[in-house]
Design a protein that fits this description.
With 196 residues, the protein is an alpha+beta fold. The protein folds into two domains: 71 residues, no CATH class; 101 residues, 2-Layer Sandwich (Alpha-Beta Plaits). The chain is 51% helix and 20% strand. The protein contains five helices and five strands; from the N terminus they run H-H-H-H-E-E-E-H-E-E. Strands 1, 2, 3, 4 and 5 form a five-stranded antiparallel sheet that branches. The longest helix has 36 residues.
């Protein structure tokens, strides 16, 4: 096929038109470029930005002080965590605390039986272990036991308290008490499989 002079001129005009169209399409808009340059170089805007940065810089020491205070408070609270290598060791430690508290009372309470609960997560950063114990005591001994338990430095809480019927003669109550303690999250086993 041969190209005639007429076709050649049409192709040249088409190529020129495409070049002009491409330049017009891709050329940056002059008003947007000037507005952007003016906005970036405007002294009023630069001064406002500088003032905002200065205000933020003035807040840094206060925020650092608040962070240090929060970290100190967290460290003080985390001293009450039960420290152990495994969850069963933490549960044994919790049982020992209960026995120690029972023996330290003016009228000692002898812990007879225990039942180990399952370790579970307590929020995102901590875990919880529990121990259920059984003993017999008078009501005033129970009140003293619970008060002494609340005064311990460890993070402990009573999660279940069951009282049986008191014996008529000496007013002794059978008690089943479940106590939970807070542990680091690393002691709680990860759940595998499907979770809903």
């Amino acid at each position: 096929m041969t190209i005639t002079d007429r076709d050649r001129k049409a192709l040249q005009l088409l190529a020129g038109a495409l070049v002009l169209l491409g330049v017009a399409y891709f050329w940056p808009d002059g008003s947007a470029a000037e507005g952007g340059a003016l906005a970036a170089d405007s002294p009023a805007l630069v001064e406002q930005r500088l003032e905002r940065v200065r205000r933020l810089m003035l807040q840094v020491p206060d925020k650092e002080a608040a962070l240090k205070a929060a970290q100190a408070d967290l460290a003080a609270r985390e001293k009450g965590l039960l420290q152990a290598d495994t969850a069963p060791q933490a549960q044994a430690q919790l049982f020992q605390i209960l026995r120690r508290v029972g023996r330290s009372l003016p009228q000692p309470v002898e812990i007879r039986a225990n039942e180990i609960g399952q370790a579970k997560s307590f929020g995102d950063d901590y875990g919880e272990v529990s121990v259920a114990v059984s003993f017999e005591c008078g009501i005033e001994q129970l009140v003293n036991f619970l008060a002494e338990l609340g005064a311990q430095p460890e993070l402990l809480a009573t999660s279940d308290l069951r009282l049986g019927a008191a014996r008529e003669k000496d007013k002794i109550l059978p008690v089943r008490l479940t106590v939970a303690g807070v542990v680091p999250r690393k002691l709680i086993p990860e759940k595998k499989g499907l979770q809903f």
